[in-house]
Design a protein that fits this description.
Pfam families: DAO
Largest sheet: 10 strands, mixed
Number of strands: 21
Shape: globular
Distance between the termini: 29 Å
Keywords: Oxidoreductase
Helix content: 25-40%
Radius of gyration: 21 Å
Protein name: Amino acid oxidoreductase
Number of helices: 12
Structural class: alpha/beta
Oligomer: single chain
Amino acid sequence: MTDCIVLGAGMVGVGTALALQQMGVDVALVDRRPPGEETSYGNAGIIQMEAVEPYPFPRQAGEILSAALGFNDKVRWRAGSLHRWALPILRYFMASAPASHRRIAAVYSTMIRRAGDDHDPLIAAAGAGHLIRRDGFRDVYRHGRSFADAARTAERLEREFGVVSRIESGIELAAAEPSIRIGLAGAVHWTEAWSCADPGGLVAAYARLFASRGGTVVTGDAKTLRQVGTAWRIDGPDGPIEAEHVVVALGPWSAELLRPLGYAVPMFFKRGYHQHFAGKGPVLPMIDADRGIVVAPMRAGLRLLTGAELTGLNSAATAYQIRHARRAAGQLFDLGDPVESEAWFGNRPCMPGMLPVVGRAPRHKGLWLNFGHGHQGFTLGPTTGRMLASELAGNETLPPELHLVA
């Protein structure tokens, strides 16, 4: 019998397993696929220490309508599945009101600002420094008005949270990023962020570090989880695995797993697509803020990432998002030929309150939760893992906003 089973080998699960291990807990890390091959594989690879405010629901009527009608590249709603998420999305809209959003950001920002400190020792110990750049990324703007608004926001974030950035004119941006084909209004260079050339590879490196320190990585099906007396049990390849504690860190699949245990988790999903191209792109990862797309240099090629699509977890993929992203990115760069024939897609697990669920479950002894990180699972995995491990060890009481309401 082991001390703890961690279900899910993405950045959040691996970060949790490492943090528990650091506290002397014997951990089995379980996933149906090798570490880093699900949602953590497909992101923009940015550790975003500047992202102190979570993404709110749009408040302008025109922006909401354009998303609903499919005219907004930043967010697109799949009308056929939207009715399933009506209540969580309504709660998301309400939580995004300015006063509520400020309260949420007060909790969120303390985690985000710790992310670099929590990643740094893992990067060094895993020998993964070659995957990391520490010179930031850019939000670029096509229009003078949106650029001016962004510059004011950057100044406010520095004043309120200490976030450091550099405001670059269109001329300065063109000199720093000579591959851009058209003139742009300017950029906000977020200098504190780090970028990763292989997000799935970084998660895999962390998992190898976990194994080298005596942890067990197991291929298994989380759906076999059940409570047996005071223990938790899953089926492993060599027989049952039992532990006093179990952590659910399954990202978008967490709500589905918890439903039979009586937990109605109000999760909804922001789907993202990406595809790699062989052309020449930016020196640093770049977010085309007016179009909601990301272009990031990766080991596999130039990764083009789309805006968010609100849809069901098991909905079929569509070509709409990647087609629009490719058109917008093609205006900025010579993308070249696609590396893969089809785009990858994954689902970001989002909670209406924009904060992840971290800590003990309210009705089951030994059941722990770490999911719902939205856009920032890659950034926050080691941080919320450390927080959960500290609460499990009795060293810390987490903010009540992070706990799941029974």
